[in-house]
Structure formats: structure tokens, C-alpha cells
Amino acid sequence: MGAISLTELGSKLAGLMFIWGTIQQFFPYTLRKRIKYFWQKLENYFYPYVQITIDEFTNGKSNDIYTQVNSYLGTKSINKDAKYLKAEKSKNSKSVAVSLDEGEEITDQFLGAKLSWRSHIETFNENSSGRKNSRPIEKKSYTITFNQRYKEMVIGKYLKHVMEEGKVIEFKNRKQKIYSNNCSEDWYWYEKGMWRDINFEHPATFDTLAMDPKKKKEIVIDLIAFSKGKDYYSKVGKAWKRGYLLYGPPGTGKSTMIAAIANFLNYDIYDLELTSVKDNSGLKKLLMETTSKSIIVIEDIDCSIDLTGKRKKKKKKSEETVNEDQEDDSDSSKEKASENKETSKLTLSGLLNFIDGIWSACGQERIIIFTTNHKDKLDPALIRRGRMDMHIEMSYCKYEAFKVLAKNYLDIETHPLFQQIQGLFEEVNISPCDVAENLMLKNVSEGPEICLNNLIQALEKAKEKASKDKEAKEKASLNSKNIKKFSTKLVGRLKTLWK
Fold first, then answer.
1. pTM for the predicted model, two decimal places
2. Which of 275, 332, 352, 461 is deepest in the core (most CB within 10 A)?
3. Which family does it belong to (predicted)?
4. Domains within the chain, CATH numbers bracketed
5. Is residue 433's pLDDT more than 50?
């Protein structure tokens, strides 16, 4: 029976081949072309769809489009009617990634077009090695099906939209890193790069940051404008970067502010230790190995290295010959000439080029942050607008900042003792870290009232100390005036006796 069926099938195929050969032989080319055209019309009428396949690997290399589509569809599948999903989590991701299982299909809408996505997984054994127990290989792909009249829109706009959204999802889901620089030549030549990293897991946010709410809001608005400012920076012809100077007394939350900014934008942090940098060339190499969407931090820049000594010497010499105002910018020819004499050292000019020179534009969406306890010690050229665009004062803790800490540590928003505390904050300077230490619960038996009383005692001690310091200062000032008066009288008498 099977032999008869095969014979009949072969006979029919032979007949079709004979008919097609006859058409090609006796029908002219133009007529054949017409027939083909109408056949395509008829086919498109009954099935007017186009299908695009996106494989996981292309020519043995990972296909970035597949990865971005996978992220995009994973998010879409949660809100759609897909029933068969897969959940995966890699060591570099924050949360579980959901994707479509084999054969699952979901639909998407874009600019009026309806698009159908389907997941495909083809499994086969690799027999080229000759091993019996070789592991099966999976070939994964996605297919997108849509009406052919949307072909140009899908290729030109929709796929670009999917890729961009997929990148955003991947970026949000990845674990943040904090990097430290290592300028050891051995480390670099072993292809380990000039940075070492670990996962960044600091819990600080703007909600938990002890700071005046108005000032926090200004910073958040500025950060949002920066993160969305790609087109604007391109329009005005500036590199997509921004500088922040955090200054104030110790313990006022400068490092916590950096962590809050990183968590708000989901950026990586590059903690640059200038004392480990040998020269300007090394600084440039470090910059080239940083990524976009990152924060480059130099903490306590006034204590890192002496970047102002050479400038001060130059100013003393220049005062004898030229006006002091002409020596105000670091990019002068004299500064460069001085730098050429000390090419083996890190100079102020090299650091300024690192911040906003030509090489600073080798990446996009970067934030550079300096911290210092003494703003007045920094060279004006280092912190001028355009380099450090926003100067943020991290001041002593005031009442509004205290309420944030009380909410964080004690989970209270009001208390009868708040009024007394408010009065003390108006008279005393105390850092947020000192306030937090007094509000922190030391054991389970302590309650909010005990912690608030501890804070009141600390504020009263600080007030008493400030009062004593003021009295001592006034006494010293009075003694100084008395000594000056006595000296003046003594000199006057000596002059009289001399005459």
C-alpha cells in the first residue's frame, strides 16, 4: 500500500514538473512574469503577513538584538495573557528575569499596528565530537509576524523602540558596581584593567537622607534633567556630563549623598584615589576605562595631593610683574610650560583636562563629584562653573533634617519632645551623624523617648561647650586687646624717655 502511494506521488510530481517545463518553454517571459505577479497578489490577499526571525546567535556570536528583545518581551509578558513563562536570575542581575517559554506567543501594539511575537527553541545533539553522552544544544530565536503594510515602520521604528526599551530594562535590572583604581603596571598588563570592582549595595536614598527637603528637591530635579538631557547637551554642543561639589564639615553626609545619587540614577561608582595615580597619562588611562552612566568620585580632594602649591608660587612671582587677575586660569601657557618640566607628576592642569578636556568626552552620561571639608582651600579654577556645575553645601543638622532621621530610626513623625529639640537645634551646630548615633536604638528595651532624651542631653552638652568656647574666645580677644593697649603705652613711654 505504501509502495502504491509513493508511486502515485512520484507520478503527480513528474506531471507538475512537465507542466512547469511546458509553461517555461512555450509561454513568453513577459507572460510568465505576469502570472508570477498575479500569483503573489493572490498569495498576499489570503496571507498578507511578513515574518522576521531574530536568532540568539549569528555567525557564532551573541546577537545583541535577541538579548534586548528578550528583556522587552519579558516585561510585556507580565501584563499580557501569556501562560507559559520562564524565570531566570544571573549573578549580575538584581531581580528575576521573566521570558517566554517555547512556543508561547504574545501580541504587541505600536503606532496602530498589531504585532505577534513567538518564542522558538530547537534542541539537537552535537554529534561532530563523536561522543555518545554529548549535551544537547539549544537554538533559541524569536519571530515577529505583522501585516506587510507595516513593514517599513516595523524595521525603521518598532525594532529600534524594542531595542531601546530592552536596554533600559537591562540597565535597571543589573547590579551596580563600585570600582577602585589600581595603577599597578603588573595588574594592567595581565589584562585585568586599571579598575577593580565589587557589588555596590549601599541602602541610602533621598528619602532617608538627612537634609533640608527643599535642597533635596532641587538636587533631584537637577539629576532628572541631566539623565534626560542627551538631546539638549547635543544641541548646545557640550559633552553629556555634570560636576557636583559637595562641601561642609565632617559627618554631614557627603558620602551618603553620593550613594543616594548612585541609587537614584542606578549608576556605577568609580572611586578615584589620586594618590595612586603616578602622572597625567595614568589619569587619562583611568578615564578611558570608565563606562557611561557612571559617577567618578574624588573624596577629600583638598587632602588627596598638593594641586595648589605650584600655582601659589607662581602667583607670588607674578605679583611682582603683572596684575594678579591675569594669572587666574589654569590653562595659561605658563601653567603648561611648568607642567612640561614635571611630566612625571600629576598636575592641576592634568586634573582639569580629566574633568572637562577633550578626553573627558570619551564617554556619555557621566557625573563627576568632588568632596571637601574646606572649600576655600581649593583652587578656583578647579571648582568654577562648567567643571563643578552645582555646589552643594552639606551643613550641620537642622530641625527639618532631624525629622527625617527620627522617621528613619524611630519611625515617628511627631513627639512632645520635638518642640524642645527644635529650640536646641536653633542654638547648636551638630552633625547629622552625631544626631543619628543618639537616635539609634541600642537594645530592644529602648523606646523613642529614651533616644530623644539622649539627643537632648547631647544637644545641651554641645550648647554648653559652645558657650564655654565663646567665653574663652571673648576672653582671649579681650586679653589680646589689653596686651595691644599695654604695648602701645609702653612704646609711647619709651619714645618719651628716649627724647
1. 0.73
2. 352
3. Belongs to the AAA ATPase family. BCS1 subfamily.
4. 24-126+134-173 (no CATH), 192-307+345-393 (3.40.50.300), 399-487 (no CATH)
5. yes
